[in-house]
TrEMBL record:
<dbReference type="InterPro" id="IPR042099">
    <property type="entry name" value="ANL_N_sf"/>
</dbReference>
<feature type="binding site">
    <location>
        <begin position="423"/>
        <end position="428"/>
    </location>
    <ligand>
        <name>ATP</name>
    </ligand>
</feature>
<feature type="binding site">
    <location>
        <position position="554"/>
    </location>
    <ligand>
        <name>Mg(2+)</name>
    </ligand>
</feature>
<keyword id="KW-0547">Nucleotide-binding</keyword>
<feature type="binding site">
    <location>
        <position position="551"/>
    </location>
    <ligand>
        <name>Mg(2+)</name>
    </ligand>
</feature>
<feature type="binding site">
    <location>
        <begin position="199"/>
        <end position="202"/>
    </location>
    <ligand>
        <name>CoA</name>
    </ligand>
</feature>
<dbReference type="InterPro" id="IPR000873">
    <property type="entry name" value="AMP-dep_synth/lig_dom"/>
</dbReference>
<feature type="modified residue" description="N6-acetyllysine">
    <location>
        <position position="628"/>
    </location>
</feature>
<dbReference type="InterPro" id="IPR025110">
    <property type="entry name" value="AMP-bd_C"/>
</dbReference>
<keyword id="KW-0460">Magnesium</keyword>
<keyword id="KW-0007">Acetylation</keyword>
<feature type="binding site">
    <location>
        <position position="538"/>
    </location>
    <ligand>
        <name>ATP</name>
    </ligand>
</feature>
<feature type="domain" description="AMP-binding enzyme C-terminal">
    <location>
        <begin position="543"/>
        <end position="628"/>
    </location>
</feature>
<feature type="binding site">
    <location>
        <begin position="399"/>
        <end position="401"/>
    </location>
    <ligand>
        <name>ATP</name>
    </ligand>
</feature>
<feature type="binding site">
    <location>
        <position position="512"/>
    </location>
    <ligand>
        <name>ATP</name>
    </ligand>
</feature>
<comment type="function">
    <text>Catalyzes the conversion of acetate into acetyl-CoA (AcCoA), an essential intermediate at the junction of anabolic and catabolic pathways. AcsA undergoes a two-step reaction. In the first half reaction, AcsA combines acetate with ATP to form acetyl-adenylate (AcAMP) intermediate. In the second half reaction, it can then transfer the acetyl group from AcAMP to the sulfhydryl group of CoA, forming the product AcCoA.</text>
</comment>
<keyword id="KW-0479">Metal-binding</keyword>
Length: 670
């Protein structure tokens, strides 16, 4: 039956029985993915990956070995092969006669546009690589990129890859302090930034954060950064450090457009990307070249059913996150895709901006996060109804569990009840998609990421590492190494082993809870560790707690992620004030002032994205006899639930005290 003839079930039915949407025969007949891929990969997993690597990637020196797992848990994939990721993303398409194909339809928030073909991209990336080399960047040197969503951001990443200089992109929403610690950890030689970018209708500054991050600070080591390359985007005034700062247009525009890409070994580092873990210190997740590129290209081709000659693809993620790395830069460009690159927010200048872009560029594949979908649901379906979305044929979701209601809305309102939805589970650490339906093959189910991709082996296990039966719940693990897996945490091999490989012997522990339904399909249930997921962004409870206690007025702090209808989770902080400041919070005005001060402080320490939604001043925190904070009980309070079993508390009256104190209305919510 063609897919558009299946009628959408009511939500009520959906919650009672798991209804699947089989692919239409028309879609299946044209699909890149075939059911036989699962069998092929199961029969010869390494052979399957070797085929992908040869089919989808161009090697300057072909590899002869597929996987070396003797150094587990550090894998080596395709290790005796050589390649260049930027050559694969750009030059080879030009050499194949596709230089005139559009690589990027850039759309600035103010409405300025720029069309970049693969030939343009080759020239730009080559110029930028030459400019970086003239600033002293060599193969192996680290470059930090702190930019908005601009053509230059993609060019900068590829220019680094062209030289074999690992990049470390830091999301523009992180503060100067967060930037400083990432630059220091990576020991970066160059930082690439912009004067600012456009956000919500106004220019916002970026360069001042770089200046601050590089300024000498007591107790901090001298910076390793020799140059700052600055893109002019908004034209706002910037402070200038002579000798250190260089304008992008001065260094890049006049540079030669010929540059020989450096062919690196497959295991050469491609990038470091910092992400939150369960401790306060962000982890520099290390990815290398050959395996990463193979899986990025493979997943992009099959999960999105990309037809590079006819599709227009758009992934709304920022390049500051892993989704931007794998599904804006490396995957789509390796596959020669034409894509939209949008600088701004979905509601500027109006709430239909995204749908306007879909109509304008005839976007056929859209990849976004459940938070964005839920936000659009809130704005109402008459907004997307005002635009022609009929070009859309595949819809993707990533970053957090998608609830069946949002899934159904996405399918019906955005996908015209025909476009298959791929709910893709993966992580910064996995480098590329791991669990997802394959359009044209899988009968999709609202709310479930379903099955591991061909070549990937995932399972749900109990506390003793036993695979749970269908219908059971437990922890998501990955049982076999995969090409795009992280190769470690930058500079901290032990932490890599402890974090991912010590919970269950021989299995990668993802940190996510999951269940298998009666069909054996996997449903992701959210983090089981102290990592929160707010709007699809990973935040660490401990990191925000450390930020709070670094403020003078705070004696102790506990942070939890409370369920939120739109953002998935919201940051809620409980703080005990220091004795001499405790009085300040006794009046509503005083409490509000303290709360505002603390929210600001978190923004300075980590970035605006980490600001707590609510801060509750409390007299005590619930702790076990061994002094561990019982976040479960605080989550009950934050979610307005009856507080659960508190018998293991050292002092069981604490919860009464907290609850009593909170009966007073709090006015510090956004
Ligand atoms: C969550 C983003 C449910 C999960 C690519 C994971 C998901 C964390 C999904 C990684 C999904 C990602 N369904 N949960 N489809 N995709 N997650 O490193 O908790 O920013 O561990 O990578 O996001 O977040 P990260």
């Amino acid at each position: 039956m063609p897919e558009n003839e299946t009628t959408a079930p009511s939500l009520e039915n959906l919650l009672h029985e798991t209804r699947a949407f089989p692919p239409s025969s028309a879609f299946a007949a044209q699909a890149n993915a075939q059911p036989s891929m699962y069998e092929d990969a199961a029969a010869d997993r390494l052979g399957f990956w070797a085929t992908q690597a040869r089919d989808l990637v161009t090697w300057s020196t072909p590899f002869t070995q597929t996987l070396d797992w003797s150094g587990a848990p550090v894998a080596r994939w395709f290790a005796d092969g050589k390649l260049n990721a930027a050559y694969n993303a750009v030059d080879r398409h030009v050499e194949a006669g596709l230089g005139d194909r559009v690589a990027l339809h850039f759309e600035g928030e103010p409405g300025d546009t720029r069309t970049v073909t693969y030939a343009d991209l080759q020239r730009e990336v080559s110029r930028a690589a030459n400019a970086l080399e003239s600033l002293g960047v060599r193969t192996g040197d680290r470059v930090v990129i702190y930019l908005p969503m601009l053509v230059e951001s993609v060019v900068a990443m590829l220019a680094c890859a062209r030289i074999g200089a690992p990049h470390s992109v830091v999301f523009g929403g992180f503060s100067a302090d967060a930037l400083r610690s990432r630059i220091a950890d990576a020991e970066a030689k160059v930082v690439i930034t912009a004067d600012g970018g456009y956000r919500r209708g106004a220019p916002s500054a970026l360069k001042p954060a770089v200046d601050e991050a590089l300024a000498p600070k007591e107790g901090a080591p001298a910076t390793t950064v020799e140059h700052v390359l600055v893109v002019r985007r908004t034209g706002q005034d910037v402070d200038w450090t002579e000798g250190r700062d260089v304008w992008w247009h001065d260094a890049v525009d006049g540079a030669s457009e010929v540059h020989e890409p450096v062919q690196v070994e497959a295991e050469h580092p491609l990038f470091i990307l910092y992400t939150s873990g369960t401790t306060g210190k962000p982890k520099g997740i290390l990815h290398t070249t050959g395996g990463y590129l193979t899986q990025a290209a493979y997943t992009h081709k099959y999960v999105f059913d990309l037809k590079p000659e006819s599709d227009v693809y758009w992934c709304t993620a920022d390049i500051g996150w892993v989704t931007g790395h794998s599904y804006v830069v490396y995957g789509p460009l390796a596959n020669g895709a034409t894509q939209v690159l949008y600088e701004g927010t979905p509601d500027t200048p109006h709430r239909g901006r995204w749908w306007e872009l879909v109509e304008k560029y005839k976007v056929s594949i859209l990849y976004t996060a459940p938070t964005a979908i839920r936000t659009c649901m809130k704005w109402g379906e008459d907004v997307p109804a005002g635009f022609d979305l009929s070009s859309l044929r595949v819809l993707g979701s990533v970053g957090e569990p998608i609830n069946p209601e949002a899934w159904m809305w996405y399918r019906r309102v955005i996908g015209g009840d025909t476009a298959p939805i791929v709910d893709t589970w993966w992580q910064t650490e996995t480098g590329a998609i791991m669990i997802s339906p394959l359009p044209g093959v899988t009968a999709t189910k609202p709310g479930s990421a379903q099955v591991a991709l061909p070549g990937i082996v995932a399972d749900v296990v109990d506390d003793e590492a036993h695979s749970v039966p269908d219908g059971g719940g437990g922890y998501l693990v990955l049982s076999e190494p995969w090409p795009a897996m992280l190769r470690g945490i930058w500079g901290d091999l032990q932490r890599f082993k402890d974090t991912y490989w010590s919970r269950f012997e021989g299995l990668y522990f993802a940190g996510d809870g999951a269940k298998k339904d009666e069909d054996g399909d996997i449903w992701l249930l959210g983090r089981v560790d102290d990592v929160m997921n707010v709007s699809g962004h990973r935040l660490s409870t401990t990191e925000i707690e450390s930020a709070l206690v670094s403020h003078d007025v705070v004696a102790e702090a506990a942070v939890v992620g409370a369920a939120d209808d739109t953002t998935g989770q919201a940051v809620v902080a409980f703080v005990i004030l220091r004795g001499e400041h405790a009085d300040r919070a006794t009046t509503p005005e005083g409490a509000e002032e303290v709360q505002a001060e603390l929210r600001n402080h978190v923004a300075v320490q980590i970035g605006p994205i980490a600001k707590p939604r609510r801060i509750l001043v409390v007299p005590e925190l619930p702790k076990t006899r061994s002094g561990k904070i019982m976040r479960r009980l605080l989550r009950d309070v934050a979610e307005n639930r009856t507080v659960g079993d508190a018998t293991t508390l050292a002092d069981s009256s604490v919860m009464d005290l907290i609850s009593a104190g909170l009966k007073k209305p709090s006015s510090n919510e956004d």
